[in-house]
Amino acid sequence: MQRRIVGGLGVGVLAAALAAAAAGAAGSDPAGGDQFASLTELAGAAEVVGIGEAHDNPAHHSLQSLLLERMAGAGQRPVVAFEMLAEDQQGALDRALAEATSAADLAARLQWRTRGWPDFAMYYPLFQTARRYRLPVLAADLNAEARRVISHGGLGALPAADRILVASRLPEDSARESALLRQIEAVHCGRLPAGAEGPLAEAWHARNVTMARRIAGALADGRKVVLITGRAHLALDAVPGQLEALRPGTRVLVIDLVERPDTRPLANAALVITTATVSRPDECAELRRHPPMWD
Questions:
Q1: 3 state DSSP class of 101
Q2: Cβ(250)–Cβ(219) under 8 Å?
Q3: Could you read off the pLDDT of 76-119 as tens digits, one per residue?
Q4: Which of 65, 252, 256, 257 is the most buried (most CB within 10 A)?
Q5: Domain boundaries, the chain
């Protein structure tokens, strides 16, 4: 367990308590009410609270739900923004939240499985909390068509007006970009066609810019934002960096949910909570059997 001291609080204790709660400590506050009050106070001082996850880890979603419930129960009324929902789904999302009668109904309306996200049951408590406290829900990610176009043809394949909206606002840094290209190659198990990493890197930045822009829009309306996203999107050179470029001085609290023992915490995380690692298949073996198609 990594300890961080933020605003004079010993948040390592909070991390231990939250991890115990996510693991199923039944019927009690393992940290005591004062510790959870400290955490909600910490979140209350931020304009954006990013809670980074491994998408398929149930403990991470339990922690996210607990944190959102605590914030709402303390009187905070944030917008809940989801990486898992694209900006052009906002209308469908609003209708689904108003009309869906079950988790299965909501998942179907949001095309959750079709869009490739893990079991909706892990995310459903977040939507339940949003409904119960009447929290706005924001579809934050880049739309699928723009993502496809950039991933295959780079930013230059977009119309000029669209290109301006999603181009990275980060300062030039060749070392950072080289590291990103290597990471993309590694994630794809060395199976990418030559030159494919560049457009994928531009798509990565475009997604982060879009999420930052959507968050900035909610902040302009006077709302706090809780961002539910994969933890990599909360790195300093991802959504937080793009948001700082768009809206300098935004107070961002990053809560990093880290699988032990070998995941490195984000350098900009104010609170790091470790959980057990989920057993996963060898994705590289699957890619070797079924190489991706590129057009």
A1: coil
A2: yes
A3: 999 999 999 999 999 999 999 999 999 999 999 999 999 999 99
A4: 257
A5: 10-18+45-289
